[in-house]
Automatic annotation (TrEMBL):
Extent of the signal sequence: none
InterPro entries reported for this sequence: Cro/C1-type_HTH (IPR001387), Lambda_DNA-bd_dom_sf (IPR010982), TransReg_Diox_bact_type (IPR050807)
UniProt keyword annotations, A-Z: DNA-binding
Organism: Fodinibius salipaludis
Keyword DNA-binding: yes
Name of this chain's protein: HTH cro/C1-type domain-containing protein
Gene Ontology MF terms in the entry: DNA binding; DNA-binding transcription factor activity
Pfam families on file: HTH_3
Keyword DNA-binding belongs to the record: yes
Gene3D superfamilies: lambda repressor-like DNA-binding domains
Domain HTH cro/C1-type: 10-64
CDD domains linked to this entry: HTH_XRE
GO annotations of cellular component type: cytosol
Length: 104
């Protein structure tokens, strides 16, 4: 699961950089409790937040998510569409087809 993988990697990267949770929280303008929740997999970060963590800890996005940026974006897309209506999913698929046609 993305949140657990991210949390484990965040903790590992944080420790390898010599930071405690409060120091990371200060860099991220968050609370220490928020960092703890991310590390425990109780909160799922957005792609932009993962990039912010990567910048704050001088790391690559791949170190946090264990996959390429494109693969991570696909995972986030799947997470975001799971609760949409059939009509909304149809519209997204139509939009994807437009994008694909424009990339040819």
């Amino acid at each position: 699961m993305l949140s657990t993988e991210f949390g484990n990697n965040l903790k590992k990267i944080r420790k390898s950089r010599g930071y405690n949770q409060q120091e990371v929280a200060d860099k991220m303008e968050m609370t220490q409790a928020s960092i703890s929740q991310f590390e425990k997999g109780k909160r799922v970060p957005t792609p932009s937040l993962i990039r912010k963590f990567a910048n704050a800890l001088d790391a690559d996005v791949e170190e946090f998510v264990g996959s390429s940026d494109a693969e991570f974006e696909k995972q986030m897309l799947m997470r975001n569409v799971k609760d949409l209506s059939a009509d909304s999913i149809k519209k997204i698929n139509e939009f994807v087809e437009l994008i694909k046609a424009g990339n040819k």
